[in-house]
Description:
The protein is of the alpha+beta class. Helix content is 37%, strand content 21%. It contains eight helices and nine strands.
Amino acid sequence: xxxxxxxxxxxxxxxxxxxxxxxxxxxxxxxxxxxxxxxxxxxxxxxxxxxxxxxxxxxxxxxxxxxxxxxxxxxxxxxxxxxxxxxxxxxxxxxxxxxxxxxxxxxxxxxxxxxxxxxxxxxxxxxxxxxxxxxxxxxxxxxxxxxxxxxxxxxxxxxxxxxxxxxxxxxxxxxxxxxxxxxxxxxxxxxxxxxxxxxxxxxxxxxxxxxxxxxxxxxxxxxxxxxxxxxxxxxxxxxxxxxxxxxxxxxxxxxxxxxxxxxxxxxxxxxxxxxxxxxxxxxxxxxxxxxxxxx
Length: 295
Ligand code: SF4
């Protein structure tokens, strides 16, 4: 089994320092949509300048490099124990090289481990065995500010007038954006999961964020919901960093899960403009690191 530690280190570096092209394109379009001289356009100018500098200097796009969340899909025969060790080694080395800020804090003592290695949940690593011979590793760096404004709703919700249907989901998602009021560093992306239990629902809402911004949901009802929510969230006028303006969210990605008859959860994971996600593909001797907007 090939040792992927150095490849994983490069995956972390690229993810932390090089914003994916689809996200940058959306930020450029958002800037164009804002009035000249407005605070919103100024905020987006600063963001885009920062994105370019980070890429040029190979330095983190944001000082908060977030929670590293790895999803590994591997063919049979790979040792998940060895892969976990390689990921943890790469994370510690990436922290030493300042691609990542030390972010793993013991919740009881408040002590920072200094190398981004905490208990088994930090960094977060999910494994799934797949068919075929190709191994993929998706990495997302999920910032703390945007994680704080994620929300979960149990429908029906009397206060929102939200029932157990797509209209209820729409109301819940818009409420999450309204409550955030630009905190969590708007404009961002909404990952929405409908159904599941509380845990699987939040997990699926984060997985939805891995989709390219410009793809179209193959489920027609969800595609319609995503397009409608994108328009309506941007009509709230919250704008970049809460300064007011045309762009509060850059994209909406939704998925549905089976649920118990007794429960109907809607989970909203909010990802800030620093939407750092990349995929590493290992196919025999060939290792590629893809922008998720690439096919
Ligand atoms: S929410 Fe995102 S952009 Fe804002 S500080 Fe955190 S990581 Fe940075």
